[in-house]
Amino acid sequence: MNLGFSLPVFGKAAATPGGIARYARAAEQAGAASLWVGDRLLSPVAPVVSYPGYDTMPEEFHTAQDPFTALAVAAAVTETAILGSSTINATQYHPANFARLLTSIDVASNGRLLPGLGIGWSPDEYGAVGVPMSERGKRLDDLLDLLETWWTKDTVSHEGVGYTIPESHVDLKPVRKPPVHLAGFGEKALQRIARRADGWLPVWSVPEQFPADVLTTTLGQLRAGAEKAGRDPQALGVALRVNAAPGTKAEQIAESVTKIVGILEPDHTFVDLTYLTTSVDEHLDLTGRLLELTAKG
């Protein structure tokens, strides 16, 4: 199993000086196939919309690293691990800056970037960056258009949503065109994934919160939609995030991961350790334990 893990970008572990570099290097050496970041700009004291399953925001999000910085640091200290995001709230960033950031990280990592993008759900975060939340969908479509141009043309010009890029030389190109994966379960999101994305970002929970056929059925719908759009349905990738509840034992996580990987057959799988550890050492210990257990399974 090609198993990956979240970098320590949230919670107490994220505040450890040099912690991301130390973890990334050691995790790859231990056998981690991929390393991942999430994206949380704010942890409001009284959020307009609470985090799903919470009355407010999880304490882990009180401390949050910048996802691009974390990916760049990991790129500098690793050689083989895929570097992914699940999920960056892409429409909260200026598109031109966003395109340059992704390109630079892909070059720094020698073509190992897997950008997983979403549109977020927090009105507080959208207010903080001055972007109308109601424009999320059209801004994501616009960003996907820009990334295609930025990565494939030597001169770039673009009339975007609220911004204009004059014809400009953009000679820095990714090592290979990064496979953009998109998150979502809603109807519009799934249609966009089928038409435009290189892959999908589903989520599995431990303990299980829904049956596995929710994921397999949705994936089947996505691939049917991709074929209808004239695309190769089997080329649509899957990068699965496994969220484990606080206090979940490593053995239970490994058993559930082995089960869902056997059913869904994702291209990439990673365990989000955010709610399970409070230090880089704990992050590393659990990484080693899960690699050992899944290798046996």
UniProtKB/TrEMBL annotation:
Class in the EC hierarchy, top level: oxidoreductase
SUPFAM superfamilies reported in the protein's UniProt record: Bacterial luciferase-like
Name of the protein: TIGR03619 family F420-dependent LLM class oxidoreductase
Enzyme Commission number(s) of this protein: 1.-.-.-
Lineage: Bacteria, Bacillati, Actinomycetota, Actinomycetes, Pseudonocardiales
Record keywords: Oxidoreductase
Stretches assigned to the Luciferase-like domain: 13-261
Entry-linked InterPro entries: F420-G6PD/mer, Lucif-like_OxRdtase_Rv2161c, Luciferase-like_dom, Luciferase-like_sf
Record has Oxidoreductase as a keyword: yes
Organism: Amycolatopsis iheyensis
GO molecular function, one term: oxidoreductase activity, acting on paired donors, with incorporation or reduction of molecular oxygen
PANTHER family, A to Z: 5,10-METHYLENETETRAHYDROMETHANOPTERIN REDUCTASE, PTHR43244
